[in-house]
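Input (structure):
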């Protein structure tokens, strides 16, 4: 009887141990299923955010393409070596040569340049969600006789950009959308080693960027979600 009781106790302990192991396995299985469900939900949410981001990027690209087409059409009569419209880094660049806009060393826009800027301003009035940056650029030839408000190429590039910004706002573009800046000689498009190349560097670039409010909201939500 003692041996049978010992055997019974041993079997009972083994059974209890196995039941405990089964209980632990069941708990782990439930936890794994919960983890899988959570990962599945996270993946679904990420896929939805990615789809939303891709949609916003596609809309931004369409907006930039439409903007370039509108600007190119409005400035068709001016385009050539003195005026070019191109896309770069998701923005529309309107590059205007010094010859179209200014006399040498001057900050006053010539009549033909004023007409081109007037046409551009008309287009931009119809594009309220586009920011405008006016960048003045020069060659590397220093001023021989600095005078008044212009001491060097920095001054010249800034004053020219300011004059163009003023003409755009006079043409109907909201001033809060426009930024004027001067880059002097430090962002050339060609080496300053010939008269032709120096002429290329003496230019004004008007950079048009659609506002990316919706895209930024999506990126911010993704960043917030990723940090949790």
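Output (sequence):
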């Amino acid at each position: 009887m003692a041996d049978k009781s010992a055997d019974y106790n041993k079997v009972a302990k083994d059974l209890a141990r196995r039941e405990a192991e089964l209980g632990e396995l069941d708990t782990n299985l439930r936890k794994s299923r919960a983890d899988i469900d959570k990962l599945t939900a996270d993946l679904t949410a990420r896929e939805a955010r990615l789809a939303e981001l891709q949609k916003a990027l596609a809309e931004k690209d369409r907006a930039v393409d439409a903007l370039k087409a509108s600007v190119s059409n409005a400035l068709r009569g001016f385009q050539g070596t003195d005026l070019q419209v191109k896309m770069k880094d998701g923005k529309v660049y309107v590059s205007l040569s010094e010859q179209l806009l200014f006399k040498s060393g001057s900050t006053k826009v010539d009549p033909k340049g004023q007409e081109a800027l007037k046409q551009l301003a008309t287009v931009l009035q119809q594009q309220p969600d586009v920011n405008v940056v006016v960048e003045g650029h020069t060659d590397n030839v220093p001023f021989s006789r600095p005078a008044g408000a212009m001491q060097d190429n920095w001054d010249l590039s800034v004053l020219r950009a300011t004059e163009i910004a003023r003409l755009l706002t006079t043409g109907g573009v909201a001033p809060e959308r426009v930024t004027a800046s001067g880059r002097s000689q430090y962002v050339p498009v060609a080496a300053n080693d010939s008269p032709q190349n120096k002429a290329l560097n003496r230019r004004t670039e008007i950079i048009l960027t659609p506002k990316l409010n919706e895209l930024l909201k999506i990126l911010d939500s993704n960043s917030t979600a990723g940090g949790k």
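Notes: The chain has one domain: 1-227. The chain has a mean pLDDT of 87.
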